[in-house]
Amino acid sequence: MNATASAPSAVLPPAIPALDDSLGSLLLGAFAGLLLQGMIFLQTYRYFQLYPKDGRLLKAWVWAILILETFCSALNIHTCYYYMVTNYFNPTVLGGNPVWSLKILIVPACLSAILAEAFFARRVWLVGPQYRPLVVIAVTLELGFLACFLLILRRWNAPTTAEYLQDYWLPALGSGFIGIGDIMMTAVLSHVLHHSRTGIKRTNWTIDVLIRYTLTTGLLICIFEVINIILSVLFPSKLIFIPISIILTKISANSFLAALNTRNWLATTDAPGTDPLNPFTTSLVGPANGPSRLASTLRFKTKLSEMTSAGSAQTEAIELGDISRAEQGRSADVLEIKHDPEAAMSVERSLAP
Asked: Which residues form the DUF6534 domain (predicted)?
């Protein structure tokens, strides 16, 4: 009788721990990552449709980020499948050594984030030599971000998840590094654009759009960086920070692609209240149809003032557009401001090598 009564208890399933801060976090991160991955695919497709004449370096840049982010999504899917399908009734695996796909995920994710940040750092580098020391500092911080996350891999063979995440301060420190670098690049670009404003309504509108885009994307990335740091510190032995990390790399990649794809839009969209046919506001040069229309040139130069004082004249001009360079086979996004022929200041952001 006792043997019969004890038989059912022998086959009782082991107690399953709460999954909210483990599998729940992984699943939410995978869902969010796949949604943003779809945006990456769409923006990549649009990029190659809109800018077929961009340089090889820029195209390779886009391909590299696309491949890395796709690899990240594949690793996320494998991680979820391993824990939720292969080991669906094995709760002990949750506290054991993390699956290889989850551990190696940090490598392509960090490389993708650095490539996206390096693009904006390159823009600041091209602005002028006075900002290049800041670029060097930002790049150093980004390399520190990569080093912090790679150091986590030294615990590859840790027997438990808690021991693998024992150095929880490393992802927090790395997120702080890249967050500071992103703030620096955002501040410099916003500063340069703000001081590039002129009295031309079309020009000011374009610059305002660029400033809003720079601040919005930079602020969004910084917010997720702060959340990532907080979760890493408050829950050192949990995987709650995983969804934020996945979303963060996807946002960086989408920001990079959006910066490339908006070049033609900025060059061909008129500011509210301006007359596109007025030669004193805009001048659109290019064929009316055909593929070359995408490489049209928008140039607008206005002589703001000519003041004769001590035999010198001051002239200001601004150019912003997607300029086709047939002899070089590439396109460039140019923002150039000139003051005084004898002491010219040029601000150029080239999106192609």
From this structure: 181-264
